[in-house]
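Model it.
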Amino acid sequence: MNTFPKPLTPGQERECLERMRNGDQEAREILIERNLRLVAHVAKKYQNTDYETEDLLSVGTIGLIKAVGTFRPERGSRLGTYAAKCIENEILMLLRAGRKFTREISLYEPIGTDKDGEAVSLVDVIEMENRETIEDMILDQDIRELHRAFGSCLKEQEQTVIRMRYGLLGTKPRTQREIAEELGISRSYVSRIEKKALGKLRQGLER
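Modeled.
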């Protein structure tokens, strides 16, 4: 996983998508390259099937290329979420195709083993489509980006207000009035700090 380039930030991703929409092929290649880590992550789930890792990566990359070409940001989803489904669907098609010449296909017939040595059947593979591991990975990435912006974009007082307001770093969420009383400032001043800090965070996440 460490050999793959780092994912794009949300701002970089939006810029590349806009450039690609205007016909920039270099932007398309960047979107593919910087999402190869996602291909490896999805393929890892199926590495104990009858297929070599290289085959899974190759097929998964085809799914990624299709995802980049058909993704529509106006529908409200993240490219990573959409691409993960396309990558997984492409790999599942490969696994199913391996059994298509069998006269009778049993959903419970073993097609490989998992990392613990347990048998994996076709029904297990189909059920994997609904698991949320990819969404969890994308959420983790978003959280890392938020922590980066929190530390680099906000002043100390802004960090304190946001941390107390939203219960970050192990604290419990508090109302603006509670924060004002603890810090010895007015509630309206807390509101202004919060609004300004959230604006800075949004800008930081877009970089």
